[in-house]
Amino acid sequence: MDDILTKLEEVLEQRKSAKVDESYVSSLYNKGMDEILKKINEESAEVIMAAKDSANDKIIYEVADLWFHTLVLLRFKEIKVDQITNELSKRFGLSGLQEKANRRNN
């Protein structure tokens, strides 16, 4: 799974130097954090609506959009996919209750 995320990460990094009028991602970077967050908010709402409709194909489509825009945010903030997968790996095997307790202690 992370192979496609890594490939997308590379493309999203390349889009930082693309012309705004030639790249959707470049235009998002150019508009800044608020516009990227607005897209994530919009995509999150669409995932919720798709889930309420109980249409799995629609949920998959909308989650892909949400993940894409989250990756845009990560590249905008210079956060690598590896940092996220490492964090998930650290949490793997921990119960949700344990993970939340660990947060309180940090």
Automatic annotation (TrEMBL):
Cross-referenced InterPro entries: HisE, PRib-ATP_PPHydrolase-like
GO molecular function, one term: phosphoribosyl-ATP diphosphatase activity
CDD domains: NTP-PPase_HisIE_like
EC numbers, comma separated: 3.6.1.31
Cellular localization per UniProt: Cytoplasm
The protein's annotated pathway: Amino-acid biosynthesis; L-histidine biosynthesis; L-histidine from 5-phospho-alpha-D-ribose 1-diphosphate: step 2/9
Main location: cytoplasm
Reactions listed under catalytic activity: 1-(5-phospho-beta-D-ribosyl)-ATP + H2O = 1-(5-phospho-beta-D-ribosyl)-5'-AMP + diphosphate + H(+)
One Gene Ontology term, aspect cellular component: cytoplasm
Family: Belongs to the PRA-PH family.
NCBIfam families: histidine_hisI, PRK00400.1-3
Protein name in the entry: Phosphoribosyl-ATP pyrophosphatase
Native source organism of the sequence: Candidatus Ruthia endofausta
